[in-house]
């Protein structure tokens, strides 16, 4: 790993109480890595403390973790990227094992799945929401991770430079997971300790607001990445309603050869037309998605797997 350029990326917002310990932990775990702290309009002394700790400090003015990740991935050039939060909750000592797994198996992402027995560090509501969203992601996309909301991840260069960050907030972890699943990237998970925040550091995560945003992101990504199934399901419901309303009309017509309920007949016709439009919209969008996926795959293939240069040399 000494021949690889490793960058530690720490998005921060009001983490004066924890950023020094976080930087020190990753510097001890990865002595040769460059540590970047990206401040997101903090109102405390996060910038001063991070700079005094020896980190490379940069600023992203657009509010939201997604905006910070977009900026970090665009600006920083490295072979391996280690991303964590600046709140000292993730175990920096686990970073070498995560990086080694990425390089040895030529993976594109290794997720640090959180393990803790401390209730204050990982509240039951957050655990339940994580399990619910993880299960939904697995059902919609066929496979998933055990902890899709973990902010502790190690990436290859080809993952970072092929990932078009679109999210604005904490739903970025979900988008990252879907990107890996859609491009069939080789990924892995390693259980890592998860700690309570130090005194003076407060969580910026809102259980219900951010949970609904993550749920909305999953549905939006499903609409974008699986348009045939998404619009096909809507079309199927409309067609089923059309058939149910059409059955009484058909029975009446067989007995009287008349269609006395003209408004119902018009409604049935409209439902079937809408169902057909949904189906064709899904088919057309599927072609567009296929083309977009090919472009992302080509961008992904333009970079070598981590550790390939070292082994070939």
State the share of residues found in helices, binned by percent: 40-55%
The beta-strand count equals 7
What is the rounded distance between the termini?
14 Å
Question: Rg to the nearest angstrom?
Answer: 24 Å
Low-confidence regions = none
User: Strand count, sense and closure of the main sheet?
Assistant: 7 strands, mixed
- The fraction of residues assigned to DSSP E strands is 5-15%
Please describe the topology of this protein.
Elements (H helix, E strand, L loop, with lengths): L5 E7 L6 H11 L4 E6 L6 H7 L3 E4 L5 H11 L4 E4 L11 H10 L4 E7 L8 H18 L11 E4 H4 L11 H11 L4 E7 L13 H19 L1 H30 L5 H40 L6 H5 L1
Parallel strand pairs: 1-2, 1-4, 2-3, 5-7
Antiparallel strand pairs: 4-6, 5-6
Describe the structure.
By secondary structure, the chain is of the alpha/beta class. α2 (46-52) links the parallel β2 and β3. The chain has helices at 19-29, 46-52, 65-75, 95-104, 124-141, 157-160, 172-182, 207-225, 227-256, 262-301, 308-312, and strands at residues 6-12, 34-39, 56-59, 80-83, 109-115, 153-156, 187-193. It has a seven-stranded mixed beta sheet with strand order 3-2-1-4-6-5-7, with helices on both faces. It starts with 5 loop residues before the first strand and ends with a helix.
Question: Which features does this protein show?
Answer:
single chain; alpha/beta; 313 residues; elongated; 7 strands; seven-stranded mixed β-sheet
């Amino acid at each position: 790993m000494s021949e690889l350029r490793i960058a530690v990326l720490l998005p921060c917002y009001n983490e004066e109480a924890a950023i020094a310990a976080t930087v020190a932990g990753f510097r001890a775990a990865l002595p040769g890595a460059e540590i970047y702290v990206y401040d997101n309009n903090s109102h405390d002394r996060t910038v001063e403390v991070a700079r005094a700790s020896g980190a490379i400090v940069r600023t992203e003015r657009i509010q939201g973790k997604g905006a910070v990740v977009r900026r970090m991935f665009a600006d920083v050039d490295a072979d391996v990227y280690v991303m964590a939060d600046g709140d000292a909750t993730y175990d920096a000592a686990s970073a070498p094992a995560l990086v080694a797994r990425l390089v040895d198996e030529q993976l594109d992402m290794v997720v640090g799945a959180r393990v803790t027995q401390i209730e204050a560090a990982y509240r039951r509501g957050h655990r339940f929401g994580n399990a619910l969203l993880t299960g939904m992601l697995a059902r919609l996309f066929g496979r998933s991770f055990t902890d899709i909301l973990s902010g502790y991840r190690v990436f290859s260069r080809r993952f970072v430079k092929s990932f078009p960050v679109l999210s604005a907030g904490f739903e970025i972890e979900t988008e990252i997971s879907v990107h890996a699943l859609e491009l069939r990237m080789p990924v892995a998970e390693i259980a890592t300790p998860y700690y309570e925040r130090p005194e003076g550091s407060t969580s910026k995560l809102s259980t219900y607001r951010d949970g609904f945003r993550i749920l909305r992101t999953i549905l939006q990504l499903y609409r974008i990445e699986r348009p045939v199934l998404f619009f096909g399901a809507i079309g199927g419901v409309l067609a089923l309603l059309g058939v149910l309303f059409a059955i009484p009309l058909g029975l009446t017509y067989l007995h009287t050869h008349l269609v006395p309920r003209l408004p119902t007949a018009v409604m049935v016709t409209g439902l079937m037309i809408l169902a057909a439009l949904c189906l064709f919209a899904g088919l057309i969008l599927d072609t567009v998605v296929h083309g977009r996926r090919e472009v992302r795959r080509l961008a992904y293939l333009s970079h070598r797997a981590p550790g390939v240069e070292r082994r070939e040399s």
